[in-house]
Amino acid sequence: MADACAWPPVNALVEWPDTDEDVVRLLAAEWGEAAGHTEPLSRLDLGPIGAAWADPPGQAFHGRMTALGTAAGEVGTRMRALQTLAAAFATDVTSAKQTIVDVINANIPLYAKAAQLDPAVAASTQDRFVTEIAAWLNAYLASLAGHGPLPPPFVPPEGPAEEEENWGKTIGDAAGVVSAVAGTGSDAAPYLRFATDQFTGNATNAGTAAKFVQGGASMFAQTPEFYGAASTAS
């Protein structure tokens, strides 16, 4: 049976990021705090030490302190870099989760509408939506991980806005024809597959599918009453 909730089937194909972005932001802040403790060491003025302690031990101490200050500056710089990376990662995780939510939610109305189609095609139509959504989300998540380019913005499949009511009725009528043809025997399968492929948010294609199946039905000696189901799609 077709379902009106798109979340479970999409979640089954898309791995939800399990990283806690709040913890990562805290880590970024702590890297920044640590850098703040080391960076001042690189700015110490050690000149007076060298001037006041001019013998060999004093100069050796001055040299070691200078090297320590330089190292502290390098460590601070690296900590700042880690802070930046952690903050960016937290932002990516937040964006990934929000994008998953937004894309799925944008498709729920159409997904729910597909559940109202004839049982012969409702499930397969919803499967196509789920596959399309999941494929885009997986490509998006892969791009965030550096495995491929960022995909173009996702465009939810939808019927013509000005014919929304007719779209639903047309597809429903066409689905009735397909269902009837499906009962004629295995030879009707190509017509069923063709029509089902047209039921993804396009009123014109749905009407074409109905006409195609109606014409094919004559090959299987259907009665005139059979054609009534497709009359509104003609």
From TrEMBL:
Domain Outer membrane channel protein CpnT-like N-terminal residue range list: 15-135
Protein name, as recorded: Outer membrane channel protein CpnT-like N-terminal domain-containing protein
Organism (species): Saccharothrix carnea
